[in-house]
Amino acid sequence: MKIMKKIVSIIAILTIGFFVACSNDDASPLIVQTDDFFAELAISAIVGDTIGIVPGTSNQGTINYSINSQTPEGIFTIGQTYGELIVASDAVANLPIDSKVTLEVSVSKEGVSQISNVEITVVPPPVDISPWVGTVVVTEDLGFFVSMVEVPTSDLDNGILELSGGDPFDFFCSAGTPTVIIKFGQLTSATEGPVTVEKQNFPCYGGSETMEGTGTYNTVTKVITLDFTYSGSFPISGTKVITPKE
Fold first, then answer.
1. Would you call 57 helix, strand, or coil by DSSP?
2. CATH code of the domain covering residue 53
């Protein structure tokens, strides 16, 4: 009999707890929250890259994300449960630097929804000169023969490459051991950016010679094409092709 009374008491307590819990749920309306989201997208991003997570919470568990609109269309998809913005198109490579991708994202649960306005700014990726650090081959086609010379290189940081050691441009220098400092600019497309050789001393024949030039680098082919001007006893202009040593 005592056992039966205990069972009845336990059932009564559980029943009361159930109704109290239900009452508490009924007293707490569903709340969904989000915020506007801002991020950057490098034009070197590839399909599958995640660039950020759109914020969203609920006082009653998981939420759902969906994209209502997107300009340009098709650049991103969004994770339905966690709100990850995922690159979905190779068209990223063709977006102009400083352009915007805008999205209206719905964060919702059981008919309650909030809107996050998303703005993504297209930016160039960090300058990476690592393919040319170590030893490069400097090539010039002079018409009657092709000049090729191997040159040690080092990274001076912030996208600056130093070519040094002997005669980096194969000018048959008779005085000094000149160096060439090449500055890399930010990519202007998905794979190509500018290089600059600011006017600098280039003591090759014992006079007040200088070197300067402009050109491009390609992150896929690993080719630097440099149009240079050497001013000194024997002025020279031409084009050098600089590639990593295989």
1. strand
2. 2.60.40.60
Which domain-ending residue is among 58, 92, 123?
123
For the question of whether the overall pTM of this predicted structure is more than 0.90, the answer is no
Measured distance CA(98)–CA(20) in Å, rounded: 55
Report d(CA 214, CA 225) in Å as an integer: 8
Tokens of 239: 């084009």
Question: Per residue in 68-105, pLDDT tens?
Answer: 999 999 999 999 999 999 999 999 989 998 999 999 99
Domain that holds residue 76: 32-123
The residue to which tokens 């339905």 are assigned? 80
Find the length of the chain: 246
Beta-strand (E) ranges in the chain? 32-33, 37-42, 50-53, 57-58, 64-71, 76-78, 84-87, 100-109, 112-123, 134-141, 146-155, 160-163, 180-184, 192-201, 210-218, 224-231, 236-244
- Most distant pair of Cα atoms in the chain: their distance: 118
Q: Is residue 200 part of a domain?
A: yes
